[in-house]
Design brief:
alpha/beta
Length: about 210
C-alpha cells in the first residue's frame, strides 16, 4: 500500500530528462532488462517496463508500489498479455505519475509540472519503439478515470503525442457501459488486444 505523504505539489521532483540520465547507476536491477525512471522508490514514477523493440505500452491511471523484480498483480497481468499477443516487451505507463495505491488519495488538482514531465516521459517511450514499428498503446484504466476531473484532459494530451508517433490505441477485454477500457486485472491470460477508438471515447466524456 502506498499512501501519498502529501500533495505532489509539495514533493521535490526530478525532471524526466534528469531522472532518465541518472537511472541505472546502482545494482538493484539489470538495466539491460528493465526501464525504470526514476530508478528509486519515491512519490511518483514515470516509467516501469522491460526493454525491447516492440513493446506493448499499457496505460493505467497512476502507479502504485511495483518496482523491477517486485511486480504487483496488475503488472504480472500486463506482462502475460504482452507475451500472449506477440510483443517482445512491455511498459507500464500512467495517465498521472503520482504513486497512490488508492486512487482516492490522488492529488485533488493536477500538478502541472508533474503532468508536463510525465508527457515528456510518454514522448520518450514512443520514440524508443523500433524502426518501422507503430507504437502499440493499450488503454487500460477502467472507471478509475472518473476519480479526478483532470484525468481525461491528461489522456487528450497523450493522444496528441501519440498522433505524432503514429500510435495505435488498443484495448483488451470488455469495455464498461460508459465505454471505459478494461483494467488489466482479471483478464484471461490469453486475452487478445484489439483496436480502441480513444478519440470517440474521449468525446463521450466532454
Amino acid at each position: 500500500m502506498h499512501i501519498p505523504s502529501c500533495e505532489s505539489q509539495s514533493v521535490e521532483l526530478l525532471d524526466f530528462d534528469e531522472a532518465l540520465r541518472l537511472s541505472g547507476r546502482g545494482d538493484s536491477y539489470d538495466r539491460d532488462v528493465w526501464l525504470y525512471v526514476p530508478d528509486f522508490y519515491t512519490e511518483y514514477r514515470y516509467i516501469l517496463g522491460t526493454r525491447g523493440e516492440n513493446p506493448l505500452i499499457c496505460i493505467g491511471i497512476n502507479p502504485s508500489t511495483a518496482e523491477p523484480g517486485a511486480l504487483d498483480n496488475t503488472l504480472k497481468s500486463v506482462a502475460r498479455i504482452a507475451a500472449g499477443n506477440g510483443f517482445d516487451s512491455w511498459i507500464m505507463f500512467n495517465v498521472y505519475a503520482q504513486r497512490a495505491t488508492r486512487p482516492d488519495d490522488m492529488d485533488r488538482s493536477c500538478n502541472a509540472r508533474l503532468h508536463r514531465e510525465n508527457m515528456r516521459a510518454f514522448e520518450y517511450v514512443l520514440s524508443q519503439v523500433g524502426e518501422g514499428v507503430r507504437p502499440a498503446v493499450w488503454a487500460a484504466w477502467g472507471a478509475i478515470i472518473e476519480k479526478r476531473p483532470y484525468l481525461p484532459d491528461c489522456v487528450r494530451d497523450m493522444v496528441e503525442i501519440g498522433e505524432r508517433h503514429g500510435a495505435d490505441w488498443l484495448c483488451a477485454g470488455a469495455v464498461s457501459k460508459k465505454g471505459h477500457p478494461h483494467h488489466p486485472l482479471y483478464l484471461r491470460k490469453d486475452e487478445q488486444v484489439r483496436p480502441f477508438d480513444v478519440t470517440a471515447y474521449l468525446n463521450t466524456m466532454s
